[in-house]
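Narrative of activities, Objective 1.

The group set out to show that a structural description can be obtained from nothing but a protein's sequence at a throughput compatible with the screening campaign. Below is one input-output pair from the validation batch, recorded exactly as produced.
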Amino acid sequence: MIFTLEVIGFNIESCMLAEAAGAHRIELCDNPGEGGTTPSYGFIKAAREKLQIELYPIIRPRGGDFFYSETEFEVMKADVKICKELGCDGVVFGILNADGTVDKNRCKELVALAYPLGVTFHRAFDRVKDAAEALEDIIEIGCERILTSGLVPNALDGAETLAALIKQADERIIIMPGSGVRAGNIIELALKTGAVEFHTSARINIDSKMNYTNEGMKEILNSVSADVDEIKTIIANLKSL
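Output recorded for this entry:
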């Protein structure tokens, strides 16, 4: 069995570490505290120049829900165009209607705009009211994969739903489990779901390297980075199956 591991890159150093550790794809994101928003032009450009593996920037104009205004949608379209211009392999997005269904019209527009780039429908999927219906809608839209935890916070807890989605998909689209995916549960998750692609942040907190800190600001200026050992162990565990 050939497995694929996608790793979130929240900064350029994390992207480079993840590639060196054996990751197969980077989901490029900014703002880890908000669950990931669209990275800057400079970040996307640097990542494309430095990475050899697949690069999929997230197209998400803000944190919060996935019900966007027309102005926000225009921003998303502009960002998709930038990703094409910079030579990315794909993009990641998800748009919902207020009633919890997939916004097929606007998603189709973004898929067409992104072509020939690949498209992943992200964890907006975990906020839909009917997963089976949403799956069929996303297949119709033309996405190549869905990133999901099975409509619960942790993918291992959603394993039964993930397995059902993979069965329903019947190889028409890739179901990629994500959220809480770690070296300690990757084998169990793979066996329970039958998934062949997985998504992990594999992140650790990094202390500031500043010699001087203004204590009066009462801040902890840590940043996140990719955990090389974690990524290597996840890949090794998948290869053991």
